[in-house]
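From the methods appendix. Each design record in this collection lists the tokenized structure first, followed by the designed amino acid sequence. Records were kept in a plain field format so they could be parsed without special tools. The example shown here is representative of the layout used throughout.

RECORD:
FOLD TOKENS (501 positions):
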């Protein structure tokens, strides 16, 4: 008889865990609080428009990246058109001076040298790194924790040409690297690329290498369609998903996980339990803080949490397809604005004209974002529903005013709009402080804990998966950690881990 694995959450991690469980002959039953798959990897309909709430770039959208193989196993990329942007970030100051982080490293090099000929050295250094790491194949087939001594040596040998560079760029943050530019404009705007200036340069170089390789595109159809493809794969493999079922507790007997208790009081028995839900919530609520991994606890106390944000989206009766083809556009406003209790002078937006499935012809979906790390402010504001609503309306008004300056007539052409706050992320996916990634991989964190534990001390038959276990997160983290976890389970049961496509 097949052993039964109960999986909490049907985000990318939960869905992937279910797929790999089925591929390896386990019964897989998912319990998801919401009514649809994907967790944070989602989009939603508003009138004639589809607002996307997640993917800007998908690691492994193309065959050049090893993650492509995982997405194939999960049925997510077959027959899916991917869109590769020309530009990653386009950042303009108040005078219109513009830095473009081109996806193609050669173009990027030419552009940066035009902007700042005196910075030839760091520009060439950066672009050479991007080109070099375009050939780097991240070792993702086997869980790093399971590599034998000989496999570790082989890995070191195979990656020896990258070691010196890795040593350098894991130990310097994006912001620190930017200080190498003589040009003050580059020094100011370069750290804004990817919106994680404290992250080690490693993260940026790897992302740029994927974009250079055309392996970091956008799945046409949007994030929910991408998640639904994995849901379909799971159902075809014989997995079961129970929507609208919030898990309250993980049941434990003799320090072994043996099932879950739902919010409605129903108990579900299982041989093994995997949680793909928020790590903090899993450990401190579903398990009452009885089994705490000290490394996780330390990260919650001292790790730099990826911020949350306010997202303001529009469906507008305007054709903006002639605008620059970039993932994210940032411009400096004439004067700073206040979002929540934080001031910002930079305006960030994404134009989804490139995906014809998201809006009717001649119309556009536009999403603007303001990063916030003041979760406590939003949490207390949310307690007063009228004040919370008023703040969201105020932010909507000032966003429209900025867009009106950029696109005259914009305000009158808006057909739908919505505003998400850090509390939306908290309420929707239960995530710690509304974070939609996890910890930023600072040089300090890169040094200290490269492997994040997917088990809890003294608790058997239980595993953790999802973005918190592979910082800084993202959908590849969900797929990869679940694939790793199924390898641990197979090892425990003395089975050979297998995958199918
Ligand atoms: C605006 C935005 C942009 C992003 N851009 C990108 C990008 O470009 N590329 C990229 O790779 N990633 C991006 N991400 C990040 C990515 O979406 C997440 O890191 C990833 O989807 C996390 O997947 P997960 O399965 O680990 O967690 P989640 O998606 O959080 O899934 C957890 C699931 O568990 C469920 N759950 C929680 N508690 C319970 C409970 N008690 N009972 C039952 N179910 C429960 C939740 O409802 C949820 O469905 C972005 C996210 C956002 C919000």
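DESIGN:
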């Amino acid at each position: 008889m097949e052993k039964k694995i109960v999986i909490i959450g049907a985000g990318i991690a939960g869905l992937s865990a279910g797929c790999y469980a089925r591929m390896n002959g386990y019964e897989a039953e998912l319990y998801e609080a919401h009514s649809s798959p994907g967790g944070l990897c989602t989009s939603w309909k508003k009138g004639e428009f589809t607002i996307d709430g997640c993917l800007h770039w998908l690691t492994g959208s193309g065959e050049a990246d090893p993650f492509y193989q995982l997405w194939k196993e999960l049925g997510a990329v077959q027959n899916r058109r991917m869109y590769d942007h020309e530009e990653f970030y386009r950042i303009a100051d108040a005078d219109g001076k513009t830095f473009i982080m081109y996806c193609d490293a050669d173009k990027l090099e030419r552009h940066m040298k035009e902007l700042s000929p005196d910075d030839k050295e760091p520009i060439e250094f950066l672009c050479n790194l991007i080109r070099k790491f375009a050939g780097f194949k991240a070792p993702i087939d086997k869980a790093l924790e399971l590599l034998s001594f000989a496999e570790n040596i082989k890995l070191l040998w195979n990656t020896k040409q990258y070691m010196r560079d890795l040593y350098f760029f894991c130990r310097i943050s994006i912001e620190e690297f930017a200080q190498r530019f003589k040009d003050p404009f580059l020094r100011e705007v370069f750290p804004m690329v990817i919106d994680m200036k404290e992250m080690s340069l490693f993260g940026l170089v790897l992302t740029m290498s994927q974009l250079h390789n055309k392996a970091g595109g956008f799945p046409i159809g949007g994030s929910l369609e991408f998640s639904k493809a994995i849901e379909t794969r799971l159902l075809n493999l014989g997995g079961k998903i129970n929507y609208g079922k919030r898990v309250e507790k993980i049941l434990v007997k003799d320090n072994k996980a043996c099932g879950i208790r739902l919010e409605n009081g129903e108990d579900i028995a299982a041989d093994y339990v995997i949680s793909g839900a928020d790590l903090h919530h899993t450990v401190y609520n579903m398990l009452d803080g009885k089994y705490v991994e000290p490394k996780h606890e330390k990260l919650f106390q001292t790790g730099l949490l990826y911020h949350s944000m306010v997202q303001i989206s529009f469906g507008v009766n305007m054709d903006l397809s002639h605008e620059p083809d970039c993932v994210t556009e940032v411009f400096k406003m004439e004067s700073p604005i206040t979002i929540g209790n934080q001031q910002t002078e930079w305006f960030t937006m994404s134009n989804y004209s490139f995906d014809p499935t998201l809006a009717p012809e001649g119309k556009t979906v536009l999403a603007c974002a303001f990063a916030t790390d003041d979760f406590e402010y939003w949490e207390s504001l949310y307690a007063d529903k009228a004040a919370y609503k008023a703040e969201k309306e105020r932010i909507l008004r000032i966003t429209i005013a900025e867009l009106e300056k950029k696109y005259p007539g914009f305000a009158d052409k808006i057909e739908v709009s919505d505003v998400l706050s850090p509390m939306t992320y908290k309420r929707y996916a239960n995530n710690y402080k509304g974070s939609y990634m996890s910890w930023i991989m600072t040089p300090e964190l890169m040094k200290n804990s490269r492997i994040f534990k997917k088990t809890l001390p003294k608790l058997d038959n239980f595993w953790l998966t999802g973005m918190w276990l592979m910082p800084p997160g993202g959908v590849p983290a969900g797929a990869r950690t679940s694939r790793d976890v199924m390898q641990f389970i197979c090892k425990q049961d003395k089975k050979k881990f297998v995958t199918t496509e």
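APPENDIX NOTE: The longest strand covers residues 326-339.
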